[in-house]
Amino acid sequence: MALWLIRGGSHGEFEEKFFEEKKIYLTWDNLKDRDFRGAKDYNAIKEIVRGLLPDGPERRIGNFSGQAWAFVLSMKAGDLVVTPRKQKSVVAVGAITSSYKYDADAPHLFQHFHEVKWLNTAVPRTVFGQDLLYSFGAFITICNISRNNAEPRVMAIVKSGWKPEAIPSATIPSKGTTEEVPPQEIRDLEQLARDQIAKLIDQKFKGHRMSALVEAILKAQGYTTYNSPVGHDKGVDILAAAGQLGFGNPRICVQVKSGDDAADHSTLNQLIGTMQTVGANQGLLVSWGGFKSSAEKERARHFFKVRLWDQDILIDQLLEVHDKLDEDLKAELPLKCIWTVAAQEEE
């Protein structure tokens, strides 16, 4: 059994199709009407690719061929597959249930596929050890993940019911070690940094402390706040309003969910009901574990009165105001801003 990484488009644009149709696709533009079923080995696939890219540089042909070979000949039924989500801080995990298939009648981006049983399409990234996240950060579209016993560890997470790994989080090979780091595994530094920030928040701001973090962000944004005592919130974690005394608009009722479970529409409805009780004209629902589809579908309907913050948005808001936080909180979240050259994605 092997563990494979595959991406649902450079911007995650094909992810929902992957999940809805229970398939993974080789979504490359120049593969239209190219059937790989007759290819028996890497050299045969490379010849097909060379025909697609007659003027392409050898490096690109080799890169393209290696990924096509992995998808067509190496992926097997029973293998695990992970798809890091682009728009959410979660990872989809599935089991491949078919060999490579080709459908000449399908739209050209979806002619090449494997069938998949998705086991969980929203596993929080904090569930995985940092070294696994490091491998998931490859900018390559398709690759095998084998370092650090990746496959049995992901399978153990599946069998545990998606409990976080009980291993040290910082196991990325450091400079001077003898272990070779494949080039595709050292690309997405921004995501790796966000993963480390998320793990730090997860460790230090569980439970009511997550409310304290959200309150600090709102204060840094200029709001006057009230934070309910532990155990007595009655559906209200934070009240916030504009103005020095908090008598201005907007008047915001905030509910914070710090656990790993995704919030559903009933949680959203509870917040809306509480807003009426306390006289708030806007609401903010913060859910560290993200939102179920039932809540996501309500975003547009409640756009003018409710905002939903998942883990990614919370970190975005934190980074925007980090310099304005009080010194004690900044000491707990010691972050440093750096500039680096943006890596280019490879097919």
Word description of this protein:
The structure is a single chain. By secondary structure, the protein is α+β, with helices and mostly antiparallel strands. It is 33% helix and 18% strand. The protein is built from 11 helices and 12 strands. The strands form 2 sheets. Strands 1, 2, 3, 4, 5, 6 and 7 form a 7-stranded mixed β-sheet that branches. The radius of gyration is 23 Å and the shape is elongated. 33% of the residues are buried.
Give the structure's gist in a few sentences.
The protein has 347 residues and is an alpha+beta fold.
Share in helix? 25-40%
In angstroms, what separates the terminal alpha carbons?
25 Å
| Structural shape | elongated
* H/I helix tally: 11
Secondary structure topology:
Elements lengths: L2 E4 L8 H7 L1 E3 L16 H11 L5 H17 L5 E5 L5 E7 L4 E2 L9 E13 L5 H7 L5 E3 L5 H10 L29 H16 L3 H13 L3 E4 L10 E4 L9 E7 L7 H14 L3 E6 L5 H4 L9 E4 L1 H11 L5 H6 L15
Parallel strand pairs: 1-3, 10-11, 11-12
Antiparallel strand pairs: 1-7, 2-6, 3-4, 4-6, 5-6, 8-9, 9-10
